[in-house]
């Protein structure tokens, strides 16, 4: 089949950051494959919004942790569209409990690490050969600043740190074929995933360490993913871009030690 339009596959695009990225990539002229696991209605809404805005999209169901389902999904997209130019590994496959390390169960710990890596691994293996043959392509992994955080997030942090390392390995292999791979690590973004854990105290703390005085919105997060996923982007390879609304520098500014040097 002859390809007429660039194609991006976004995992977990029915809600949150993935849905916003789907709309942004649609605006940029990509045909968007909107992957979801269960929420067909939400995926259909994203597809409809892209089409209403003049773009092109389709919903594609698959649990990205299941290699059979990933394979069927990728075959369907290729049969329909002729290939995949960009992949965004975004699905929030497992929400681990925010549990202190001493009481965190092994099943919860390894379940998060396993789910995070399975989603990235099966999709990566599924698209990379085709991209290497085309000698072009973009892969973006969606990670978190939690990879560097210590606290009741051991499962989440370990999973995202592993994802960062995995992404650098993929980048090294892919670069030999002209395929550009990068990762974006977000601070807190206002989505369903954060709604469940964001107490008033935590929100106030996070907002005090944001240049804007508020959490990042999914649309803001989406623009940084889209920048890295777009075929025009070639400026970095194998990097983890921190997108935290200023958290890191403001956190340091507010540290008691800063006062001793002003
Ligand atoms: N929100 C934040 O503050 C934040 C911060 C740093 C990093 N991140 C990362 O950003 C990414 C998106 O997070 P989010 O907050 O937007 O998540 P979210 O609002 O919880 O949305 C999760 C999305 O992932 C899909 N999904 C879950 N498991 C899946 C599976 N096995 N296969 C396919 N799709 C699956 C869901 O599909 P259904 O609708 O069908 O359930 C949904 O579209 C995640 O990788 C997360 O770790 C988020």
Characterize the structure shown.
The chain is of the alpha/beta class. The protein has a single domain, classed as Rossmann fold (3-Layer(aba) Sandwich), CATH 3.40.50.720. It has 9 helices and 7 strands. It has a 7-stranded parallel sheet with strand order 3-2-1-4-5-6-7, sandwiched between helices. Helix 2 (40-52) links the parallel strand 2 (31-36) and strand 3. Helix 1 packs parallel to helix 2. The longest helix is centred in the middle third of the chain and has 29 residues, at 106-134. The radius of gyration is 18 Å and the shape is globular. The model has no long low-confidence stretch (mean pLDDT 94). NADP nicotinamide-adenine-dinucleotide phosphate binds next to helix 1, strand 2, strand 5 and helix 6.
List strands and helices in order, with pairings.
Blueprint: E1 7-10, H1 16-27, E2 31-36, H2 40-52, E3 56-61, H3 67-81, E4 86-89, H4 106-134, E5 137-144, H5 154-175, E6 179-186, H6 192-195, H7 200-208, H8 218-229, E7 240-243, H9 247-253
Parallel strand pairs: 1-2, 1-4, 2-3, 4-5, 5-6, 6-7
The structure holds NADP nicotinamide-adenine-dinucleotide phosphate.
